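Example 3.2
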Amino acid sequence: MADLNTIARPYAEAVFDIARESQALDELSESLAAAQALMADGQIEAFLANPGLNDRQRLGFLEGLFEATVGKGSVFAGGSQHGTNFLKILLENDRVAALPEIAEQYEALKARIQNTVDVVVTSATPLSSERQADIARALKDRLGREVRLATEVDEDLIGGAVIRAGDIVIDGSVSSRLESLTNALVT
């Protein structure tokens, strides 16, 4: 069977094109994020695999689930014909399991067109708002894109920080430097 990322690509591109044409990029982004969260534990996918359910019942279940968790504003809560059609296509082609990957690829397409990048800075201690602003400015200059910064704390880093921006990883943590030093001494 094909990799879910490969399966998700054409669906993400198609739904992105529709959202872009209808100027609903953010609305669909929120709905896909909700779908990604709902599909995370595997219970919904297992329920949808029940052979006793037909596609109409599966669609009704999904729309009801989105309405209950996200609200009627969700693209997938039956309020949008595009959202309903998208869910129908996923159900008919047995691709609901690819929703998390579709959401990730959609966000990458959206970030590319909006010239933004999501950055996660993991540090040993919480970063001040001034330090976060400094990092965001430096990354904006380096990457040439608007930066959406999120921070995490990992005390195992000892000091320093690890910055993840898409495919780029900048590891300036003390623990990484100690590991490199250890490897150099052992070899």
